[in-house]
Specification:
Largest interface: A-B, 36 and 41 residues
Oligomer: heterodimer
Order of helices and strands of chain B: HHEHEHEHHEHEHEEEHEHHHHHH
Strand order of the largest sheet of chain B: 2-5-8-1-9
Structural class of chain B: alpha/beta
Radius of gyration of chain A: 26 Å
Helix content of chain B: 40-55%
Number of strands of chain A: 9
Largest sheet of chain A: 6 strands, mixed
Shape of chain B: elongated
Radius of gyration of chain B: 24 Å
Largest sheet of chain B: 5 strands, parallel
Strand content of chain B: 5-15%
Chain lengths: 371, 298
Amino acid sequence: MSADLVAHLARFAGSLRAAGVRVTLGDEVDALRAVTLADLGDPEEVRLALRCTLKIRPRDGEVFEDLFARHWLGAGGADRPRPPRAEHGPGNPGSSGLVPASPRPVEVEVEVPRGDDPGWSRDAILRKKPFDECDAGELARLERLVARLAERLATRRSRRLVPVRGRGRPDPRRSLRRAVATAGELLTLARRERPLETPRLVLVCDTSGSMDPHARFLLAFARALKRVAKRTEVFVFNTELVRITSWLSGGRQGSALERLVAAVPDWSGGTRIGQCLEAFAARHLDELVDSRTMVLVLSDGLDQGEPERLAAAMQRIQARARRVLWLNPLSGDPRYQPTARGMAAALPFVDALLSLHNLESLERMLPLLAR
Amino acid sequence: MRAEVGALQEAMARDGYIADEAIATALLLTGELGKPLLIEGDAGVGKTEIAKVLARLRGTDLIRLQCYEGLDVSTALYEWNYPRQMLRVRMSEQEGIDADRMEQAVFGRSYLLERPLLRAITRREGPAVLLIDEVDRADEAFEAFLLEVLSDFQVTIPELGTIRAEHVPHVVLTSNCTREIGDALRRRCLYLHLDHPSLEKEVRILHSRVPGASEALSLQIGRFLQALRARRLARAPGVAESIDWARALVRLHQDHLDEEVVRATLGCVVKDRHDLRDLDAPELGRLVAEARGEAVAR
């Protein structure tokens, strides 16, 4: 196995990574073993072997083919691997530095079961009323409804069975183990049950000026979620990112909000979504987000920063999280198109874009959180 | 390697599976590198069939684990045979055997019910083909467990100790992409994505699987199916469906498509009521005419 080939493959893998395709060292080792089996004079064979061993998914297919042509089909024949001529990285304009990796998210329509409404008739009107049109009294009522809605989240059962005392299905294995001690007499039945499972959530809320009418309600939502799903983490941002998880527990809604406004720099100011999400990805992603965590971004996507940074941050977050939902108060308007620069940049890396402008839209979203 | 790929393609074709180079290369590499193969693709593109053909070619058993929500260790790996254990305990009691010896006897290998994963690693007569079907339907916890089994090919049973694989099985995992497979599991495998076949490939498949179908019929079915898939149906028909349809049409003694018969047998390929409703009479007429190679004025 020539050192040339190893180096060339490493460069190829490096370019794939730079283009946003996830390739690990283990994949490279597989690829190297496969390429040494293949006939280097036969580009088709090399191509198929690389696709298979580098685990190239359909969504990365185009990037792969493009880079393969550059790295392995350069003039001079494929038997003498040549370094890529055009070094391309994220900084090179016109290169596919950030190719939208996932299919465009779809607006999700979830049917809400009838007869399971959170409120009585007085609240029916409230359910459709946009948050920014509610007065203080109505908001307080909304908050109570949200708290009841959020409780539903904690009703998903895990599919595993764990030992329990009292009620539950019989557990033959443990029962028999006990029976051995009493000379084969089954005196007590051991039981097992599927435990309740609460989703892990990370909320990142925009509190900039354009989001101000919604902020109070969104925080109520965050508090309600925090009560049922204890591991919920909450961040707010406008020009800077602040972790507010610890401030949400205890105290009344109003006072929590006031403390927040005092502590968050530039509350109701401008937004730098990209920078703040970048900070989130750098400081908190590894610690708080894993493949079981759902990340909710609550923002209108009206960004004053650079959309490239936002896209890069969202890509990192999506790669690590179970799902990424973007909740946008503006998309309640049927005429809304996600064309705000920030929104357009983030869209490829979002699993679902949902509207969040009234209680009804919130109800639709909740089942998605438990998935 | 090209020669081997070609040979494998031919062998698979003799067995009734028309494989393109990508499929043959992937199978060859999984054998050479000794790694599992993860096959992703829409329902009905022939993922499961690959494992079946592989088992036949290697002359070995196909051991299949069908995944579903809530699949757990006792269905996938092993379970103790509780009734037998119970009986044994009762008998020992009457014979006056002490508890320690009784426990040893009851948790012996002969009281173990082997489920697919355990059966695959304990097969004595050489490596089996282990098909883990629709792994996307099992949950993440099961995926993590699978990862453990697939990396060491050994299983630890608390009462018995560690059972090591007699022969490392050839593992094929399939996924319909209803959920993203975890990165760790994906990295453990080699990867193949199967698309719907090209027209030429589909006609060859029909020839091979439905020998009774005339050349014209196979070609027309192929064209019709290609056109259907291009229409973004809610449920795109797979190769399995086109084979079913070809068989149905052969039974009805058809040697070409006509609108009436297509309307009557459309349920073989279009299995969603919204899709069926969208295919109204003029639309269907146009598709049939196009499949028959007639020029259609749009």
